[in-house]
Amino acid sequence: MKAIRYHQVGGPEVLRWEDVPEPTPGPGEVLLRVHAAGVNFADTERRRGLYDAQAPLPRILGSEAAGVVSAVGPGVDAKWVGRRVVALTKESYAELARASVDELLELPPEVSFAQAAALLVQGLTAYHVVHTVGRVEAGQTVLVHAAAGGVGLLAVQLVKAAGARVIGTVSGEAKAKLARDVGADDIVRYDQEDVAARVLSLTQGRGVERVLDSVGASTWQASVDALAPFGQLVSYGNASGPPPHVEVESLYAKSLTVSAYWLRTPTPPEVQRRAREALLAEVVAKRLRVVVGLSLPLAQAEEAHRKLEGRDTVGKVVLLGEG
Ligand SMILES: NC(=O)c1ccc[n+]([C@@H]2O[C@H](COP(=O)([O-])OP(=O)(O)OC[C@H]3O[C@@H](n4cnc5c(N)ncnc54)[C@H](OP(=O)(O)O)[C@@H]3O)[C@@H](O)[C@H]2O)c1
Question: Which CDD domains has this protein been placed in (predicted)?
Fold first, then answer.
C-alpha cells in the first residue's frame, strides 16, 4: 500500500508518499480502508520533532481514521467487515490502518467520513476542555482562542450549547466571520488588538470565567489578565510555542486556577464512550456543525501541513483515501 512517511524530522517537505508494507490486524483489531485521515496540529509538531520526538523513524503520521472495515484480526466478530466507522488509531496517513475494535464508532449514513474524522482528536478535545476540565456552566463567559480552528469551532459550539457566552480570538476577517457563524458572540482579532483590554471592555471590567488556550506562548499573559476573579485557564496546546512557567504566587491576586488537558490522559472508557456518542448524536441532530475547511488527497499531506502550520486553514483538515 501507499502511505505518507518521513525519514527525518523537518519541514513539510520531509513527508513522502511511498510504498510501505500492508499492516495486519492483530488480536482485537480490525483493518480499515482509510477514506479520511484527520490532520491535527500535533502532527506538524511531531514532524518538526517538537512532540513525540522519541518515536522511531521512518514514521507514518495520523491519529484518527474514518473508513470501511476491510478485515478483522483474531477474536474479532466478522460482522464488522464492510461497516463505516471512525477510530482513534495510529499511522492513519495511509491507504490502510489498524484500529482496536474497542475504539470503533459506527457511522450513520448521514455523517460523512470527513466529518467523522473531526469528531475524535478535535471533537473529544473540545468536549473535555469544555465539560470535563472547564465544567462550563450557563451564564459564564468563555474566551476561546483560535476560535476558527479545528478544535476551536467545535469548542465555540459546545460552550454555546452549555448556555455560556463566547468571546473568540482569531487572525483574519474570514476566520472572524466563520467563528461568528457557528455562534461566537464577540470576536477579538488577536493579530490586531490588545486581547485583555478588549475582553475587559466586553465584560464591563469583570473578565471571563474561563479561557480555553491552545495557542500558548503568545496568548498566555493576555489569558491570565482577561480572567475574572476565581476564573480558570484551561491550557491544551502550544501552537505558538510553550507557555511560560507559572508562578503560583501570580495566581493569588485573583484566586485563579490553571488546568491542563491532554487527550492521552487515561480516561475511564465509559466517559470517553459517552463523549464520542454525544458528539456523534449532536452532528446527526444538526446541532453541532463540523466545518471541513480543507480536504486533499492523501498524497498531498505536505500541502495540508504547510497550510495548517501557516495559519491558513479553518476547521478540520482531512486527507482523503481512494477507498
Ligand atoms: N491537549 C490535547 O490533547 C490536544 C488535542 C488536540 C489538539 N490540541 C491542540 O489544540 C490546538 C488546535 O489544534 P487543531 O488541530 O484544531 O489546529 P487548528 O486550531 O485548526 O490550527 C491551529 C491554529 O492556531 C492558531 N495559531 C495561533 N498562533 C499560531 C502560530 N504561531 N502558529 C500556528 N498557528 C497559530 C491559528 O489560528 P489563527 O490564525 O486564528 O490564530 C491556527 O489556525 C493545537 O495547539 C493542538 O496542538 C491539543
Answer: QOR2 (cd05286)
Write the pLDDT tens digit of every residue in 108-161: 999 999 999 999 999 999 999 999 999 999 999 999 999 999 999 999 999 999
Tell me: the pLDDT tens digits for 254-297? 999 999 999 999 999 999 999 999 999 999 999 999 999 999 99
Among candidates 100, 97, 101, which has minimal Cα distance to 79?
101
Contact call for residues 291 and 313 (beta carbons, < 8 A): no
- Residue count of the chain: 323
The protein residue whose alpha carbon is closest to atom 45 in ligand 1 is 237
Cell 480570538, located at residue:
169
Expressed in angstroms and rounded, the spacing between residue 311 Cα and the centre of ligand 1 is 8
Helix ranges (DSSP H) in 13-92: 41-47
CA of 80 to the centre of ligand 1 (A): 34
What pLDDT score does 139 carry? 98
Residue type, 48: R
CATH number at residue 184: 3.40.50.720
Q: What is the pLDDT of residues 18-48, one digit of tens each?
A: 999 999 999 999 999 999 999 999 999 999 9
Report the C-alpha gap between 235 and 187 in whole angstroms.
20
Please check whether residue 127 lies inside any domain of the structure: no
Task: Give yes or no: residues 237 and 175 share one domain.
Answer: yes
Average pLDDT over residues 48-70: 95
The residue contributing the CA closest to ligand 1 atom 19 is 149
- Percentage of the chain with pLDDT > 90? 98
Which atom from ligand 1 is nearest to the alpha carbon of 148?
40
> Total domain count for the chain?
2
Output the CA 91–ligand 1 centroid distance in Å. Answer: 21
Asked whether residue 114 falls in the same domain as residue 145, the answer is no
* Domain, as residue range, for 50: 2-118+290-320
Report the separation in Å between the CA atom of 239 and the middle of ligand 1, taken as the mean of its atom positions.
5
Residues near ligand 1 (Cβ within 6 A): 40-42, 121-122, 125, 146, 148-152, 170-171, 175, 214-215, 218, 236-240, 261-263, 308-309, 311, 313
Rounded distance from Cα 167 to ligand 1 centre (Å): 17
